[in-house]
Amino acid sequence: MSKRGGRRRRHTAVAAAVPAKSEPSSVSHAPLSVNPLRARKKLFVALCGVFAIWVALLLTMYFVTVYPQRHHATSPLNTSAPE
């Protein structure tokens, strides 16, 4: 057990439970010890903020460029006939 983090090795119990093969293999397959990722709250909040700004920018560009052209011609308030 290490002083930092206090995590125990899990692969030692697994390796002891697996029976040994009769033939030696050329490649030894050691059990992998995978540490879970840490939660990074500041990074998550920053990425959520960037995503919200990106969505707001896309909606702004849509309503400034596409929406007026699409709905201006079909508006029932536009009753003036072209000359």
- Please give the share of residues in helix: 40-55%
What structural class should be given to the helix and strand makeup? mainly alpha
Main beta sheet strand tally, sense and closure: none
Low-confidence runs of at least 5 consecutive residues = none
Order of helices and strands: HH
Cα separation of the termini: 87 Å
Question: What is the fold's blueprint, element by element?
Answer:
Blueprint: H1 11-17, H2 41-72
Summarize the structure.
The chain has 2 helices and no strands. The protein is mainly α and 83 residues long. The mean pLDDT is 76.
Structure, explained:
By secondary structure, the protein is mainly alpha-helical. The protein has a domain at 39-72. Helix content is 47%, strand content 0%. The relative contact order is 0.06.
Write a concise keyword list for the protein shown above.
83 residues, mainly alpha, 2 helices, single chain
